[in-house]
Design a protein that fits this description.
2 copies of one chain form a homodimer. Chain A is α+β, with helices and mostly antiparallel strands. Chain A is built from 12 helices and 18 strands. In chain A, the strands form 4 sheets. In chain A, strands 1, 2, 3, 5, 6, 7, 15, 16 and 17 form a 9-stranded mixed sheet that branches. In chain A, strands 8, 10, 11, 13 and 14 form a 5-stranded antiparallel sheet that branches. In chain A, a hairpin with a 5-residue loop joins β1 (59-62) and β2 (68-72).
């Protein structure tokens, strides 16, 4: 009996080249990528992935929501597979790394294992999840949502874009309406991703061990005052909806600051009516996005916001209506998988930082059906969903090496497939 | 030699009927009027006015910017005429009274003088000023602006609407491109108008003696922060343009309140970029409308706003750009004319309130070339530029009777034209 081979390093320049090559499909003049889910560009990127995966020795298949699975067989076909992946759809005017990195890091692991003739015990699989971004079809994280039972297949297939075209129609059109809709057994799921925030860069860390994700509560707020002429209406006689709204806009931020460091409060969307220079606004709509590490904090933030609303309503002749439009509970990734990411990072020579994901990711859906974890790498200035999104080649390599270790530890290296190679 | 006749009262129901009749041209389902300057509807209203004025014994003529003058001859043709008037164009979805009231009150005075066979010493004239509202063509108060030299005739004629059609083209099309472009001699100008604010109603006064108009300084403010993802970006790492903007939005109102009662501060227009629920706003544009009774106050308000901007810029990595886009100096109407309005109101049995106009009016332009004054009457809830704009019949009558007295005092009643009538 020979010694088991050690875990190989991935080929960083090859991974980088693949990221750059895939980014040519839908490349924007500003250096980014605009490749919305289920468009012709998405089809081209999907076909490219399948071609590369087959060249790396994987079998590929597509499920009923268009998720692509590229499997490398292990020695024990009865064991459930270890999954890794992310998505290759982008925002309009998005970047080269968001999603694509996790998919191509997985592909690079397949290639490196093949190069090193390494056989794993369990099957391993790279997944491309359909429509993570939600830019064209709602809900976002659709493919992983259907896979994990968060969203029904029929609801997903009947979702329509702003032109009225459905997911089902587009899947058929681009040739990615597969037949396997029952999710297969999964041992665990690992997703490498750019952080999309500034924390790793500011703390000068290469690897983030993602311990969980912030809970989110989204609201629509409507403030109704009384529209009147900006000139003849004395300040004491006004019912200015924008003034009341601006108090709330500030309150949202104060609330998040009071629950530092892992709370967030954002007003991103504002509509003022009638939006005329010399008319006191009669109505203002705005969005509220509250996030926190645990449900208690999230609920405290929402309660405090409601208290401020009551105070404003008592002091001013203003109506304020707050409606919750979306809620995602705070979650923690599987402790064993998180520990494995931490151990793998340290084995690879990094001093990782525990981090909470502020954004949604396919891994959050997967965590409902399998032990899951994520590996973050820094992105320049924390910028994402932007054409200038950038990650350093060294960091791209580092994250993929940590992913390689997680997969090999979890799947088990059982031997060298073809020592004569 | 007989006694001079006393000043007659106007026919309130007839004036009310004329207001309602004119409001049928461009009537909206919501009970208002939508009759933009130089449209077919404006043409119809102009022709109706000319017909009525001729029936009341007036000679009519049109000047080069389309202002309509309806003159009733007095005994001394060498004396300059006493003018009264307003406008009959409306806002889209405007009301029945704004502008129309001042014109039709003038017309009613012509009718009442004729009914009572009263001859004045000076000529008197009702004017319909072109495009006061500015809803279709900028600048607003165009006809009175050209008449008083605030705006050149050629600039006014070449102004274009959003479809690219010019004022000159539309005047020709509707048959109101007159030839008299040199303003004639004017003794004085009186304009009756609804207040468009709540002050008279709240103080339970019927007549407002308008002593002047608030100065206005209009600004465009652009706040530039940095667009980033609402989830992964900790509060401490944000450059949220909307947060900075909301401080300024509140400051604009505080400033006006600190210079009570005759200062105003309004943010009416806001645009947030990219205006997405889960993106921290990178850029916010908003309008600032500051008004005050005197230039010193107006300048203090603007300086204080600039100080707040400097403080925000020092404390946050935010750029703020404030550009002045329009400035109208504070003005006082002619003391004699204002005193005449006050005296006329008291003669007619009212306890008038001195009031400062917060809005622009043709009289503000006329004041540059002739002694001028305005008479305000209440409007329900202070609402104007709105289909539900409403004035009480008693108030409509009262304002016209005060206007009648101003005109008769200024023009001089010299006799009964045709005692046998």
């Amino acid at each position: 009996m020979t010694d088991l081979p050690s875990i190989p390093s991935i080929d960083g320049p090859r991974l980088w080249t693949s990221i750059m090559d895939l980014a040519r499909i839908g490349a924007t003049q500003g250096g980014g990528v605009s490749r919305l889910a289920l468009t012709d560009l998405d089809k081209e990127a999907r076909c490219t992935f399948i071609k590369w995966a087959r060249e790396a020795g994987c079998e590929t298949r597509v499920d009923a929501i268009g998720n692509i699975f590229a499997r490398r067989r292990g020695r024990s076909p009865d064991r459930p597979a270890i999954l890794m992946g992310s998505h290759i759809d982008t925002q309009p005017g998005g970047g080269k790394f968001d999603g694509n990195y996790g998919v191509l890091a997985g592909l690079e692991i397949m290639r490196s294992l093949r190069d090193n003739n390494i056989e794993t015990d369990a099957d391993i699989e790279v997944v491309v999840w359909t429509n993570e971004e939600g830019s064209r079809f709602v809900p976002l994280m659709m493919g992983s949502g259907v896979f994990s039972g968060v969203c029904s297949l029929s609801d997903a297939l009947s979702a329509r874009d702003s032109e009225g075209v459905s997911v089902g129609e587009e899947l058929t059109r681009i040739g990615f309406a597969g037949d396997g809709h029952v999710p297969h057994a999964v041992d665990s799921y690992f997703e490498a991703h750019i952080e999309q925030g500034p924390v790793l860069e500011r703390t000068e860390r290469t690897i983030g061990v993602v311990v969980g994700a912030l809970g989110q509560r989204w609201f629509d707020c409507t403030v109704t005052g009384f529209e009147s002429h900006a000139g003849p209406t004395p300040m004491t006689h006004r019912r200015d909806a924008l003034q009341a709204a601006s108090i709330l806009i500030q309150r949202v931020v104060e609330l998040a600051k009071s629950f530092a460091p892992n709370a967030r409060g954002t007003v991103g969307q504002v509509a003022v009516h009638p939006n005329s220079r010399n008319v006191i606004p009669g109505r203002v709509h705005f969005s509220v996005d509250l996030r926190a590490e645990d449900e208690e904090t999230l609920d405290s933030m929402a309660s405090s916001l409601c208290e401020t609303i009551e105070t404003i309503k008592q002091n001013q002749s203003i109506l304020i209506d707050l409606v919750e439009v979306s809620r995602v509970p705070a979650m923690r990734f599987d402790a064993d998988c998180v520990a494995l990411v931490d151990r793998s990072a340290r084995e690879a020579g990094y001093d990782p930082l525990e981090i909470v994901s502020g954004a949604g990711h396919d891994a959050i859906n997967l965590a409902k059906v399998a032990p899951s974890a994520m590996i973050f790498i820094p992105c320049e200035g924390g910028v994402s969903h932007n054409e200038i999104e950038h990650a350093e080649p060294d960091h791209v390599t580092a994250g993929a090496n940590v992913l390689m270790r997680c997969i090999c530890h979890r799947a088990g290296i059982v031997g060298v497939a073809n020592p004569s190679h």
